[in-house]
Amino acid sequence: MAKRILKSLTDIYLIEDIKFNKDQDSLVELHERYKNMCFKQVHKFQNYFKLNNINKNDMLGQSLFLIYDSAVTFDPEKNIKYITWLGNKVKFFCMNYTKKEFKSNHFLEYSGEFFTHISARVTVDSRLSNEPVINFSEAFDFLIEHPDKRIKKVFEIRYSDLKDKPLTWRDVGKKLNLSSQTAINLHSKGLKYLRKKIKLTDR
Questions:
Q1: How far is it, in rounded angstroms, from Cα 46 to Cα 174?
Q2: Among candidates 153, 157, 144, which has minimal Cα distance to 194?
Q3: Is residue 189 assigned to a domain?
Q4: How many domains does the chain have?
Q5: What is the pLDDT of residues 86-109, one digit of tens each?
Q6: What residues make up the domain containing 52?
Q7: 103 belongs to a structural domain
Q8: Model pTM above 0.70
Q9: Distance of CA 96 to the CA centre of its chain
Q10: For 61-88, what is the mean pLDDT?
Q11: Rg of the chain's alpha carbons, rounded to an integer?
Q12: Whether residue 168 sits in one domain with residue 123
């Protein structure tokens, strides 16, 4: 079969390839086409993020998930353009991220096998799978096994806080008497650890 020239393919072709085949190449191409549009939409909510104690950089890192989610939910038969649909998805995501249940459902970055493989191929720190392989409580069960006990505490504070507003890394660090960067580093170590655990449970 001749190799596809992705740049010559239509948005609809890429969207259907993502929706029905979960094709990584098509998602990377669609992401390249619309990531800047996602960033511009997110920037429009920067005042809203400040009021709700949301880290804007965290939100900018969601472009891969947002483009994937908009592709699999897009219906070309409806009288709406894909770029408009994507814009609505970004707006909904930004405005609902402060809700506790919404945040909890999306707490595990790169959790799906599909996103685990593709995340290294995009040019931003894209995160979030729409179908977590393990649930919220199981993730914490895995983190208990990690030798660095601070990691579990970082995840607990970041994702289990009963407040509707997600804590900033500065606030997470304060609660643990750590710097913001140390909290971020521990979080990254925890994600890598969970990815390994997810792979083992999928075998």
A1: 23
A2: 144
A3: yes
A4: 2
A5: 999 998 888 877 665 455 455 444
A6: 9-98+111-132
A7: no
A8: no
A9: 14
A10: 90
A11: 18
A12: no
